[in-house]
TrEMBL record, chain A:
It comes from the Bacteria. GO terms for molecular function: dioxygenase activity. Belongs to the bacterial ring-hydroxylating dioxygenase beta subunit family. GO terms for biological process: 3-phenylpropionate catabolic process. Signal peptide: none annotated. Keywords: Dioxygenase, Oxidoreductase. The lineage of its organism: Bacteria, Pseudomonadati, Pseudomonadota, Alphaproteobacteria, Sphingomonadales. The keyword Phosphoprotein does not apply. The keyword Disulfide bond does not apply. It comes from Novosphingobium colocasiae. This is Ring-hydroxylating dioxygenase subunit beta.
Amino acid sequence: MSAPSQDLLARMALTFEAQQFLYAEARLLDTQNYKAWLELVTDDIHYWAPVVESRERRHRAGHYVAAADESAYFDDTRATLGMRVARLGFPGAWAEVPPSRMTRLISNVEVGEQGAEDIPVRSCFYLFRSRLETEEDSYHGVREDVLRRVDGELRLARRKIIFAQSVLTARSITTFL
Amino acid sequence: MTFDVSRLVDLENGLIDRRIFSDAEIYDAEMDRIFRRTWLALGHESEIAETNDFFTTWMGADPVIVSRTAQGIKVMLNMCRHRGGTVCRVDRGNAKLFLCPYHGWSYNPDGTLKVVPGLEADYRHGIDPTQWGLLEAPRVATYKGLIFASWNPEVEPLEEFLGDARFYLDCLLDRVEGGTELVGGMRRWIIPTNWKHAAENFVGDSYHAAATHASIMRVPGLEGAGGRVKDVVGYQAALDNGHGVGMWMASEDNARGGYGHLAGIDDYLKSIQDQLVAKLGELRATRLTPVHATIFPNFSIEFPFASLHIWHPRGPLKTEVRDLTIVDKAMPAEMKDMLRRHCMLRQGPAGTWEQDDMDNWSQTTYSSLSPTARGLMANYQMGMGHEHTRDDIPGRIDNKSSDINQRNMYARWAELMAMDPPPPQVPAACRSHSGEISR
């Protein structure tokens, strides 16, 4: 059996590194350590969750994802993410009083062709949110990220969240995907 | 009917029975008596700009198609007349026909029956195709871009239904040449709440802001752009047909005052100041800012957010929200984008404002399932005995914190709930024996 090529080993290492980044990020979000999570994003991050519609198959395979100038659940900069995080830290953020219990499953991680700085990473997410006694919400879909190496460490520079649901059955999104 | 409307809503004493927020029989009666009688907001003309453009939505619990035809806008029940298949399964598009996937009946964009497979060979011409088109809402009308429809052929003209609400709506819909358009797409989600909790919040509940939105007040950048910011007094206006508006009014000394933190809006308003005065008059152009409104039953507006909400009832304990962003067509692109982001950060399921509202409405809905709670009337007494009128603005007026508009909304609710439902608009050939559209 021939040894794995250097290319394959490099890709494995990068995929492992990206997976570990996404898992660590998910842990920070699950535990609502949002200030630490903010440290993982670049200053120029675009954090975006465009709305989704059902269309005929001839329109982009029947799954229409809104364009940049259309409606979105999130279309955030580092500044507005900071506002959201700051707000969640105050006692009057009632939709998180008491706090949710969350579990994120991140899977199907695929690392694309690495550019000079940026690493495109696609992953699937499933977030289960439980609150109070039996209040339950779930969210699932795909994330198209761009990770960037900053001072040797991976950081999140772009995130496009595409929910599978066109009408979200979750009552609210009080966290980040 | 096992409920007595006059006992559910006691407006003389400002009391409302919580049963109306969760009772299935009351909900069914609302769908018949309110949602099949009044005008209902469906969307905006800019969504169906071209011939054969369509979108699907709801009228109460009825799924409908809104279609642009050569003869104007048609609104049709999204149901094949043959066996009830869904003839349009997507949210929007442009279509030359609507095809039922079950047996292949197809319909033109105006709802007329196009093809019945086997009309000759199998039906042997035993049916009259002119009697089996999609069921059309008998009344469709627009008001300055907004599309409304009604199942009730006897419904009053739309302008009459909106009445004095037009005075306030025009501040958003008719402030500049060219009118309005929607930002593409919409936020949609399901809140576990009764639709009335959402409608009553927007109709007049300024009182909730200090507690519900306490967290907002702590974070610079998330403010609501509630209107002209200096030297203002707030009012509620209770209007005919259950509508209500809340507003800020600047003093005469502070006319043309700025909006403060909403970046760019001051410059934009200055740039259209002459048009504002010409179209709206001095008061509305320079001092008055409507903030929130509900057009009864289920259409709400957040004016400075440029946000339209339609609350589609999906059962007594569920509401599907459609959250649309509306902008002036003639606005500079960067101003449209600023408002789009402004709404995004505040409204919708992830909205920093709205998520705390929804959490409260869910609690108030579910508390009404408690048998003991149902024996305790909810309090809508704020401002009773303080209603008055003013010369400069229409409606019955009270302070910004008051239940005047909620009482007004529930008075209309009670009035319609005490009436017989309008007769079904069903072709004679296929009217059900019960005489009612089944539900």
